[in-house]
Amino acid sequence: MRIGELAARGGTTARAVRYYESLGLLPGRRSGNGYRTYDEDDLRLLRQIRTLQDFGFGLEETRPFVECLRAGHPEGDSCPASLAVYRRKLGELDALIGELTAVRAQVADQLARAERARDELAAEAGVPGGPEPECELGGRAT
Amino acid sequence: MRIGELAARGGTTARAVRYYESLGLLPGRRSGNGYRTYDEDDLRLLRQIRTLQDFGFGLEETRPFVECLRAGHPEGDSCPASLAVYRRKLGELDALIGELTAVRAQVADQLARAERARDELAAEAGVPGGPEPECELGGRAT
DNA sequence: CGTTGCCTTGACGCCGACGTCAAGGCATAC
DNA sequence: GTATGCCTTGACGTCGGCGTCAAGGCAACG
Ligand SMILES: [Zn+2]
Ligand SMILES: [Zn+2]
Ligand SMILES: [Zn+2]
Ligand SMILES: [Zn+2]
């Protein structure tokens, strides 16, 4: 199989495959005419990389999985090094989700506060001598 | 106040301040000697930018808030445009948190499955004729 | 024979938010 | 005077994961 077919079957592009090879994640065997040539094992490697990429793993983080497969082990995550990456990633995900959740709450608070302020201004505007309308409609620039 | 003091009081660097100015987020007033000069209002602008940055907003997303403040409105989020950014961001955060949570679950599944497979191999290894040890300890490369 | 299609290497572009020199000007302190 | 420290513009570097030409080779089809 040549690079185009490998890429298509792996759900990516030839350019990406060459890039993975440049990182040493995929082999660079050549056939007589100089074309890269791949077998089903290589497709497994590529699919392992893609799966992890879809999980948000960086390419370097896929290396233990790839090396595990290349060592002939049954799965890319048969090795302790791969399990360690899983665990580290779980920690990172939890931390990130926690941060994002906290930020979400803060942004929701800000929105609520700003809407409340806006409504109060609108209520005052209902009475004579109330404040001017909102932004874009004019303001007292400094 | 000159750029160094502004940056320090705003919790950032002079380089960042110049960058914000290049985007039109901060003014570029100069004093006689060519130095940039700032007042307390500018510090409010900078702090508004930093706060939103800490929330993960892109600099372009801070523009409505900054323009609102520069228009003399009481808060950066007094304008509908700012509120719209808040709401859009809430949606993005919810989407992102959802994706990350789903990924977290998948990674946890993978980890559990891999650990189970490892333990099964270890159990079989306890009996004679069991499989070889894990990765890095040897494998039948292809 | 030419045309098409896939392949090759090399190299620069992109995104965002700056960091990091380089080379020089201004102002205060000693 | 000069040493120090902050300021100026300009320009290139960073990180990741490729995209996108450019210029040319190999193979099959008609
Ligand atoms: Zn093979
Ligand atoms: Zn292994
Ligand atoms: Zn002002
Ligand atoms: Zn406003």
TrEMBL record, chains A, B:
It comes from the Bacteria. Residues 1-68 form the HTH merR-type domain. InterPro entries: DNA-bd_dom_put_sf, MerR-type_HTH_dom, MerR_fam. Pfam families: MerR_1. SUPFAM superfamilies: Putative DNA-binding domain. Residues 118-142 are annotated as: Disordered. Coiled coil: none annotated. Keywords: DNA-binding, Transcription, Transcription regulation. PANTHER family: HEAVY METAL-DEPENDENT TRANSCRIPTIONAL REGULATOR HI_0293-RELATED, REDOX-CYCLING DRUG-SENSING TRANSCRIPTIONAL ACTIVATOR SOXR. This is MerR family transcriptional regulator. It comes from Streptomyces bluensis.
